[in-house]
């Protein structure tokens, strides 16, 4: 495997992080960069919270809560209980140990560090070897326009549990943001062998990255096959509001919609074996995309890389 | 007792909070205002920390850690452990439940609330009936000039454990600060019966309040006896760096120094019974100032009020 070259994955939180974990078992650490959505980032209690970055850090360091796919394992909630006792806001759960990420991040941002540097230091501290790269060091908050008004992402996603009907998504300030030098370098690596769009929600996790012009350009011009994994299985999302959002946005809940959405950026879309009948486009192939065990994650990672190898004529 | 009138106490953290607790057992809640030092306040991890206010809130609500006199009882430290794991700053301990105070305070400050309003809401939430009043809503950070340079208060006090030799104390911005309307109203109450300067460190806890011109003026012109309790017992402080600081500042470690320091603001200084031989000034009297049990706290509160009654000719 080590002869293949470098691999870049783009992901959001839970589902995407699972495939990133699989890739980390298959790709040599120095050859793997995981570009992570920061559109969900927000301030809570004045603390800088970066949910997808933290989910990737927790997942790749073996610290993620396996029951939820986000937050830390063996977490305690004494802070939140005390916040509730004081009449503070309890709609966004912050575990006692999870809080440390936000607190240290906040202190380092105030001291002038870039999110990329802070994330790299966290990855080192947690024993993670692949590069975990925020898509940008800029603040590009996703805003959800709904039938209940314009909502900051976390208010929609966590506070209102995605109940409002989505009309449009806006990736605020993304058009003025730059990908980081580290992201550009990863996508421009001379030995780049594969780009993988993880099975994350396209609208909430991948699009906020694609909305950064320089990142989209780097993806579009990258000299390696781009493999996307469909986040739909049997016309539904494994987790999260994707299916509901597709309905609300007027899109059929099919992998064809996903492929059309990514358009020319993607060379191949992997669908779950259960959806084999949907694979009518030459740019579609079938794999076991439902990841329950670590072996599932590793197998899907291998399937993505094998597909890229085939497209690149390496296999 | 309820016929006496209203009582105002001024205090810092641990020792002062103990007498404030005693007073809360003796003075009807509606007649008791506790004015608290905010010179120790600072931001840590971006969170607004107000150590003396929190110590008073924890002490009066029965939540204080009895072993330390600060922080919360039955506290856990998983946040701090996780901060350490990430390589963050661990010199200032923030317990998992204590963190809630700072987080909710930070959010409410950002929403435009005054520290006084926030403290009142915390007191209500914690079941505290007397008024807990920050001396000012302004930021008046104490700065310690030492032989190791000019240090922010918490860096000196907690970070360096008071090791540097103190040359001067500065109460930054205090001369431009105003006492709150609530503090002024308490000190100007028509039925004011006693003002009590708790046995807090004069330089670190009481002077930052006296450095606010409007507060000092209100104290100086208040129409009630002012009783101070000496923080020295046997020429030493019960807790904290007071004795060391008095040496460094060139002051004899005697209650006479304390009385001279407060000057005309104080009508009577209560010394511990062990220091009876020091009570050579007509403005000195003896009481049991060492507070070990709740009964000690209550007894000292009664002694303060009785002294004020005598001075006012009420007894």
TrEMBL record, chains A, B:
It comes from Acuticoccus mangrovi. Its EC number is 2.7.8.28. Keywords: Magnesium, Transferase. This is 2-phospho-L-lactate transferase. It is an enzyme of class 2 (transferase). Gene3D superfamilies: CofD-like domain, CofD-like domains. One of its GO terms (molecular function) is LPPG:FO 2-phospho-L-lactate transferase activity. NCBIfam families: F420_cofD. The keyword Zinc does not apply.
């Amino acid at each position: 495997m080590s002869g293949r070259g470098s691999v870049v994955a783009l992901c959001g939180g839970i589902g995407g992080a699972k495939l990133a974990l699989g890739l980390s078992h298959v790709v040599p650490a120095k050859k793997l960069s995981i570009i992570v959505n920061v559109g969900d980032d927000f301030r809570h209690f004045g603390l800088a919270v970066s949910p997808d970055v933290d989910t990737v850090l927790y997942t790749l360091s073996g610290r993620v809560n396996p029951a939820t796919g986000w937050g830390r394992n063996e977490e305690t909630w004494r802070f939140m209980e005390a916040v509730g006792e004081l009449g503070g806001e309890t709609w966004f759960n912050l575990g006692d140990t999870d809080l440390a990420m936000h607190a240290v991040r906040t202190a380092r941002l105030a001291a002038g560090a870039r999110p990329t540097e802070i994330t790299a230091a966290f990855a080192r501290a947690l024993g993670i070897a692949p590069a975990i790269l925020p898509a940008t060091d800029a603040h590009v908050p996703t805003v959800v326009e709904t039938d209940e008004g314009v909502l900051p992402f976390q208010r929609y996603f966590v506070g209102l549990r995605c109940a409002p009907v989505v009309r449009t998504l806006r990736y605020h300030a993304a058009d003025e943001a730059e990908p980081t030098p580290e992201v550009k370098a990863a996508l421009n690596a001379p030995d780049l062998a594969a780009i993988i769009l993880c099975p994350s929600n396209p609208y909430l996790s991948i699009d906020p990255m694609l909305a950064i012009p320089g990142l989209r350009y780097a993806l579009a011009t990258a000299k390696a096959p781009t493999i996307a994994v469909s986040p739909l299985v049997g016309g539904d999302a494994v987790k999260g509001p994707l299916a509901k959002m597709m309905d609300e946005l007027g899109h059929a809940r099919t992998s064809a919609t996903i492929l059309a959405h990514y358009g020319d950026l993607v060379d191949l879309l992997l669908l779950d074996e259960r959806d084999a009948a949907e694979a009518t486009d030459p740019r579609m192939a079938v794999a076991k995309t439902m990841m329950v065990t670590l072996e599932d994650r590793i197998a899907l990672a291998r399937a993505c890389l094998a597909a890229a190898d085939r497209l690149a004529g390496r296999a």
